[in-house]
């Protein structure tokens, strides 16, 4: 089963996610050419060296546009509009354009520029970035959210579905609005909190005149792994999904204040009950 790319695939932004897309396709036996376009020439160089792409460029004018019938945007979400504007006069008329971006209301802006655009977000990743860390099984068995709108063209939607089915992902559909609310809560909030927690320990280190990072407990390490994520990517996500992130941060502050009050008032019984409720809920998730 292929039926999604007849000529060649171009990945714009050849980092961890884009590289993993290329590797995953090859692992599944995809035979057509895979190209990369990245503002960082080193990403292209490494991508070619490790055999992730067949060829790649940093210059739009060098790309063999006529050979390409599928483009995936895999750079930080803040770059997508600019890239779409660059692509619009270069791609062949029936080229499907999709993305791997973590926020989805920008689909409305992108489909105005590129009528063949279909928004997609794989629910898979790590705190590592760069093509060098890409893996060939990232998307297998993982959720892939497609966010169609009234304007989404059925033919291009089908091609995007076929691509992800071929990779073994589990496809779900959401409106861009629902997507951004859901992932604002389950992904963007935890990242924001992890960044803030590391910052809090930095502040406390200064206050206590001791380097607290010399004593990282397992809890701290588990909890803050994602604070090592790429700053550009997360700046773009936080700003693109500002309203939902702020709403999630407010909910988190309320929860933290509730815990703070219970501790402050020494309400042992209530505190135990609260922790028990949350602990049971968390255990039920695994
Ligand atoms: P990455 O930093 O590994 O790779 C991004 C690549 O994009 C880099 O090679 C960079 O040089 C390139 N780039 C930056 N600006 C560009 C531009 N204007 N034109 C062309 N290339 C450009 O990042 P990643 O982890 O692969 O994330 C890529 C996308 O995937 C982001 O949109 C992110 O929101 C989304 N995403 C990431 C994860 C994750 O866990 N890493 C999960 C789901 C979705």
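^ Assign residues to that structure.
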């Amino acid at each position: 089963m292929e039926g999604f790319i007849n000529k060649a695939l171009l990945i714009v932004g050849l980092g961890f996610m884009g590289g993993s897309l290329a590797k995953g396709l090859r692992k599944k036996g995809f035979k057509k050419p895979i190209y990369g376009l990245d503002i960082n020439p080193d990403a292209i160089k490494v991508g070619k060296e490790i055999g992730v792409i067949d060829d790649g460029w940093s210059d739009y004018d060098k790309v063999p546009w006529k050979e390409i019938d599928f483009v995936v945007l895999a750079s930080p979400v803040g770059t997508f509009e600019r890239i779409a504007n660059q692509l619009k006069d270069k791609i062949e008329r029936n080229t499907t354009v999709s993305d791997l971006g973590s926020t989805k209301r920008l689909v409305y802006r992108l489909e105005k520029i590129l009528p063949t655009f279909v928004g997609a977000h794989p629910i898979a990743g790590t705190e590592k970035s760069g093509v060098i860390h890409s893996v060939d099984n990232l998307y297998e068995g993982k959720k892939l959210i497609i966010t169609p709108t009234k304007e989404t063209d059925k033919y291009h939607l089908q091609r995007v579905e076929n691509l992800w089915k071929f990779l073994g992902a589990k496809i779900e559909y959401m409106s861009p609005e629902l997507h951004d609310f859901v992932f604002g809560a389950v992904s963007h909030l935890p990242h924001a909190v992890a960044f803030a927690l590391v910052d809090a320990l930095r502040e406390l280190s200064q206050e206590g005149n001791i380097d607290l990072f010399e004593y990282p407990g397992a809890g701290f390490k588990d909890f803050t792994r994602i604070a090592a994520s790429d700053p550009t990517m997360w700046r773009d996500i936080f700003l693109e999904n500002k309203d939902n992130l702020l709403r999630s941060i407010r909910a988190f502050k309320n929860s933290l204040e509730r815990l703070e009050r219970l501790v402050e008032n020494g309400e042992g019984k209530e505190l135990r009950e609260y922790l028990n409720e949350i602990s049971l809920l968390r255990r039920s998730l695994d």
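Residues 12-18, 37-40, 43, 74-77, 79, 83, 100-102, 122, 125-126, 129-130, 230, 233, 237 surround nicotinamide-adenine-dinucleotide (CB under 6 Å).
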